[in-house]
Structure formats: C-alpha cells, structure tokens
Amino acid sequence: MTENMKTNKTLKFVETLVYYDGPQLVHAIDNIGTNYICVLVENAGKFLCVSVSPERLNTFLNGDIELRIILESPETEEFFFGIEHEPINNTLKISPISKSEILEEWLPEPGFIFRKQLTIDESITNDAVTRNRAIFTVALNPPESRYETKISAEHLGQAVNLIQRLIKQAFKKSLKQLDSLTRERLDIAENYELEVYSFSEGSFKLNLQNKAFAGLWGYPEIERALSLLDRVNNNLDSPETTVDTISEYGGHFAVAYRDIVKYITDNDMPITYEWTTPEQRPITPIRISARQAKPIYELLVTREDITKEIKLLRGTVFKIDMVRHTWGLKNIEDNRNYTGSVEDSAGISLGGITTETKQYEFTCEEILEEERGTGRESTHLKLISFSEI
Question: N or C terminus of the chain: which is more exposed, having fewer CB within 10 Å?
C-alpha cells in the first residue's frame, strides 16, 4: 500500500460557507472529527483543503484571519486536493499533495476575510416580555471556553465588571442632553445596573437583565445606554470612525471603552452581545473581535483629549484652603455642594477668589478612582481654570 493510499480520506461537508453556482468555500470534517477548510479551485468540484484546529476554525469563522493565510500556512503543513465524490451526500475524497503542487490561481486574493453571520437568540425576546425588563446577553470567548463550557473566574469577573462599567458610563452620557431635573431623576443605579439570571452553553454566554422593570409601554431607561453602545460599535472595521464616534461622548465613557478593548486584545477574548426590550425591538448581534479591538485601543491611547472628563460648575465659593489647595463651591444648576483640589500642573492660585458674595465658573477635570477590594468608585475634582461670572 502506497503512502498516499494510507492518507487518502473522505470528508463530509459540515457547512457550505460560500455558495455561487455550487459550493465555493466549505467546512468539512473527517471520520475522526478533524476539521477542514476547503476552497473550490477548479470546476467539476475540485477543492484545495487544509486541516484546522477548533481554535483556528473559530478564528476564521469570526473573521479574524484571512483565508489565504489558512491555505498557505496550515497548522500541520499538510495540503490535500479533493474531488467532490457524492454531491448528493456532500462527501469529498481528498489525497495529500505537496506545497509545490499548489498553483497560485488556486489561492484567494490577499485580504479576503470570511465572517459567519451571527445567529439571533430569539429566546431573549420571550424573556424580555415575561420578565418585563431589558435583556442583555453577552458571549465571552476566551481560549479556555473554545473546547468546553468553562471560563476562569478571573476572566469572568473582570469581563462582567468592565461591561457593567461601560454600560454605566454610556447611560450617564445618554442623559447629557436632558434637563438637570430629568437627569437627576433618571440617574439612579437600577436604571443601568445588570444582574445575571442564567447562562447558555457554547462560548460562555451570560443572560443578564436590567435591575429596573420597564415602564407601562415596555420602555426601559437602559435602552438609552445600549442604543449609544450600538452606535459606537456600528463601524468596528474602521478604527478611525469608531474613535471619532467615541470622541463625541469622551470622558469616563471613552476610558471605559478603552479598557474593554484592551482587555479583549490582551486576553484574546472576543465579546458578542445582543439585547432587546419588552417592546420587542429588532435584535442585532454585535461582535467585537481581538482583531478589531487592537487598532481601536492603539488609537485611543494616543488621544488623551478624548478621555478627560470635564465638568463645569457655576456658583458661589463657600470654602478656600490655601494650605491644602482645596475648595468648595455650591453649584447653581443642581443646588449641590462640590469640593475638590487644584490641578498641580494648572498653575492656579486660589488667593484671588472671594467667598460667599461672588459667583464663579470652575472648569474641572473629574477623576474616577476605584477602591481596591470593594470595586466602589469615588470621584475627585481637579480645578483646571476659573473665571468670575
């Protein structure tokens, strides 16, 4: 028996990925469960095939690696030429060939990326109605979850924390155009906080619900934040466009977004999310891959102007401490007292400020600080400039 005869195989089509007058790109499997990517190279059903690991197959189907790279550089350095054996039963007989036998015209053009269409989880529509809440599902796909349903506690905890922080900041940005009384009424934790109520198999998929119930007409306030998030993620393959959209909101939201794309990049953990509400809005799954996240993060770290959260206060100064360089001001807009310190690099002296009788406009940078251990956030205001009103 020749060596070729020993390695001849029959593959079974799992799925036709690209179809045009017949299968053009196919996912197939052999009798021991090895996956193959096969591309039509000649008429009469002749295919070039290479084996792929489950992880590389997942990377390819999610659009994170070019088809040409899959075919030129297979993981096992083995190449196969196949002829469609039984079109009705979708089987393919393949035989090994050497790399030197592969013709250039068999290979796709550089830059061709296949992205499998995301499936919609219709069950969350029922959950939204029966629970009368916004439902948000997120599939976390770290390396350890690609072979079985498991995820490290660290990955799970950090990912959920980053997602919740991003939604919180998106919600706060979504209120900016509202009047102060409406903002104060809506800006409460239950309107943007999520809680897990179940998980599904596959990529580690969490099903979350908004803490707040939807109103009489099925509209939950968290929809403001999730719609904003969709707008930002509408052009993920264009990093410049995505960063331009993020810059419209900036501040704490930009920092939260920067942190989550860094986490996706550092941990090779694509995140897919979808959401709906009791009013049954259309569901559109959105996936942020490591390939998309990396250039967005690299742009964001160069844009310190985007990540600064600027807060304007107008009112009467009630406290000045020249030794500690701290101050207190009662804000006209919300009738609240604010305290802070002077930004060291601003070169500002508080000595010329008159307390109690004059009104000032303070331009401050708001710094978010997270307590270690508890994860609770606190804010600190740094005075950048001021002027008398």
Answer: N
